[in-house]
């Protein structure tokens, strides 16, 4: 059984929580805890051996925690997700393969694309694909269509697997802290069009990727995972894009595993990841 | 205040420990815990805010823990170490620099070398150097000399910073779980003489280093930290040795920081590192 | 046009080769060269801009190179491969996805499995799957069946994508330097059964993977690519296997790209990889 | 003998150069070459076995290269450098240690600090230290003092080893492409004061460092080397600074080795690094 708790910090929290576990004879297998001292916030992920169901545990925990505590017990082991894509296949295919073999930690409800290029690969894995074009309808109409499909599927998370349209603040707000995005990252950062071209012209030696929850601003929001891959002067801008895709695939996969495994807490504009 | 605990696992340990902290109004800043379920072992590192001394805390903890528990409270913030070297400077110089600038987390009591090549660099940092030659005395005599110098200095740890003599089982036993060694590592492993030559001939693409506590067998014992560095066909065996030195220096520095910061627990032939 | 050359080294080779390119007005875009001084061997990969076909170029090159030189000009841009699998999907699925989207640099002719567990995923990508069981026929019969299927497909390379049967020396000899294997790697190496269990018990901090050409000995042969991923005491043996699969997938993908792009030279028991 | 060449590209360059080597019976040990096709630029680093001096070689090479070619033959094996520092010791100490043991590939002529905190460590290694304060004289005066000391020492390179003053465009211009800087790097980049505080507040998962030649703009200029180190939510802003220092030390060391080994070419705002 996995228990995740996020609340104001106070003296004795770990004691109270673990006393409750002991009272029920739950043995604690792993306990990850973090306190943000400056913000006075407490985060805990517990994995316990429990041999019987205990429907009252949620309330028992709330009773011993400060007001406003968020508690999730035994979060549904298999999350539900909807995936948004454009043309690039790399992140989607990785998700579809893990979904098919049962190792994703989530069930893909459907895929929505603003192009229909990736419909065939979804069909091959028996995953419903919806086409929400941005050219034959307005952006508002397309987003309303996407929003409607998402709401019908009621997913835990929405994964932007290289979805290349900017979603409106309203959309992001509607699905707050439930949208996960992957994007390339550079040292230094390159603002504006064609960042791979800029990275190439600057001769960067690393290409990175960042997976993050989406906040109001484009490519901002709490970071879940990051990684880099080395490049050199022999890489063309196209080569840099290719290795960028490899690292995007790997970083998104890692971030999804952490989120689906209930290891990621979000507050302010950052995350606590209890591995 | 840092508290480290290692004992048999049982239901309610975290509760009991943290209730004791709460009773004393110690706020838990960070709590790292690990249970080895198969071995029924419990490990905890606590960092607490405590505003007054409490000399009875050690006994209070033992009272609530299973028999045989090992508890260290507020381990002396600065450890004492003795460093053994042969001819290579890279790990020693890194230790001396951090020692001089007060960032090592330990105080170097002295350096012992089976050659005197590194005496000058020690002198420049005002660190005593002892020469324990293996050519003008027997191995047993040299080891007895080393052992005697160590015992006079009463260090918490002995660091083998590229000490290229094999220490006797008796020596290792005398200073059990207090000797830290660094050595190169390869994929695959190369047994026998001149591993860098073998690595070169096999065309390995990675050179690694492993920092570990010394057990009875050479280059065996609980692993503290490991890292690798990429190489390629353009590297000569000498180039591989050079990058091997870089990664050895970095891995030993990281391992020492973890150990001196009381983050490393040892049991069976492995470690728990609570970062 | 890509040209790869492997021959005895002698003074003036680069001059002679590049003079020939200049004579034909081929501009050299990239030139990677390596000399193994001790072995007196010369390796070159040339990428040139050539606007017309030149069927005589191969002979012209042989004319200026030492006896016994191996020259490949404009190697067929798309290699043909046969993939061997057992039960694990991770490497195969990655290959099938890249094959489907045309980014593998090779065309998968068919997949052969000693179990038929992975037949369905092949079928979904329209790739022929052959079942070569080891339980209803002898090992010799199974290997003969595999060998026969391979020969019918005439592949450039055979990829062991987690094929868990040991192939006979005769088989390896028949397809010498054309079989690519991926396997987990550890620091230190663990010999014998269940290496992940051994790695877990030793508390390793890294899990690695090695892609290599197969030589006569199991898990030996010239190394093409290696990479590692960090682990810690919180990883169970099963968790280590899972991250091991991630790094195996990534390393095999990288190795295949290098090989299919004609960047890998093999000699003695090692490779030169001209990136 | 090492030869480095940078010039306009044209058909037959490699042929002409290597024919010249062959004429003199110089055997080419390693040849690294890069062509920037878009910019029509050619870069080469040659390592040759030459048994006799050849003072005319420089002119012979210029004779066969396009106008404006830059050729350096057998660049003085030991470069001369001046190091600028402020208060942080990590990069300076690493340079001093390598300088002392003869593995830096350059000789440190002197160190200049705007504070005198690091004078003692220089003195311990017998390296002259000059104090160029910014508080008892104007910035212009301090820079004039620094410039004067540099000119007296006539170094090949000036290394900013955590020099925390902004140098004037005139200064940077005077020592163009000879100033090497190291600075922290983040994904995303953080503009303004206290980037480690910003990185902490954003919850970054990586801290990086970039070594680069200094151009007119602060922290801009051709990148020589980059690397990162993982961090997590348990790192305070101070912890992030500490690991930032580790990666800065490692990246500057690598960049200096590449530069002193004549492996780095600069053009436009980027580098070619022939490893």
Shape of chain A: globular
The CATH superfamily of the largest domain in chain A is identified as Formyl transferase, N-terminal domain
CATH architecture label name of the largest domain in chain A: 3-Layer(aba) Sandwich
The largest pleated sheet of chain A is described as: 7 strands, mixed
Strand segment tally of chain A? 13
- Detail the poorly predicted runs of chain A: none
The overall pLDDT of chain A, averaged over residues, is: 92
**What letter string, H or E per element, gives the SSE order of chain A?**
EHEEHEEHEHEHEHEHEEHEE
What is the radius of gyration of chain A computed over CA atoms, rounded to a whole number of angstroms? 21 Å
Helix percent of chain A reads 25-40%
Structural domain count of chain A: 2
Q: Quickly count the helices of chain A.
A: 8
C-alpha end-to-end distance of chain A: 16 Å
The CATH topology label of the largest domain in chain A is: Rossmann fold
- Classify the oligomer: homotetramer
CATH class (first level) name of the largest domain in chain A: Alpha Beta
Strand order of the largest sheet of chain A: 7-6-5-8-9-10-11
Largest interface: A-D, 32 and 32 residues
Strand content of chain A: 25-35%
Based on secondary structure, the structural category of chain A is: alpha/beta
């Amino acid at each position: 059984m996995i228990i995740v708790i996020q609340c104001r910090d106070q003296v004795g929290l770990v004691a109270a929580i673990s006393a409750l576990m002991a009272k029920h004879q739950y043995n604690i297998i792993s306990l990850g805890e973090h306190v943000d001292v400056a913000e006075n916030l407490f985060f805990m992920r517990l994995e316990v051996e429990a041999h019987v169901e205990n429907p009252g545990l949620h309330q028992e925990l709330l009773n011993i925690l400060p007001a406003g505590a968020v508690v999730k017990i035994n979060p549904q082991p298999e999350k539900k997700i909807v995936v948004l894509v454009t043309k690039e296949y790399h992140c989607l295919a990785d998700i579809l393969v893990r979904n098919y073999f049962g190792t994703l930690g989530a069930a893909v409800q459907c895929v929505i694309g603003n192009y229909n290029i990736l419909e065939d690969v979804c069909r091959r894995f028996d995953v419903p694909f919806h086409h929400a074009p941005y050219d034959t309808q307005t952006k508002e109409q397309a987003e309303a269509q996407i929003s409607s499909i998402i709401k019908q599927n009621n997913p835990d998370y929405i994964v932007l697997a290289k979805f290349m349209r900017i979603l409106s603040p309203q959309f992001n707000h509607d699905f707050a802290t439930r949208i996960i995005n992957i994007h390339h990252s550079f040292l230094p950062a390159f603002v504006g069009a064609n960042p791979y071209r800029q990275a190439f012209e600057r001769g960067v030696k690393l290409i990175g990727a960042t997976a993050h929850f989406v906040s109001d601003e484009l490519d901002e929001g709490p970071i879940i995972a990051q990684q880099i891959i080395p490049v050199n002067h022999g890489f063309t801008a196209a080569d840099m894009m290719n290795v960028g895709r490899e690292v995007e695939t790997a970083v998104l996969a890692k971030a999804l595993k952490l989120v689906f495994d209930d290891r990621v807490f979000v507050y302010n504009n950052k995350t606590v990841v209890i591995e």
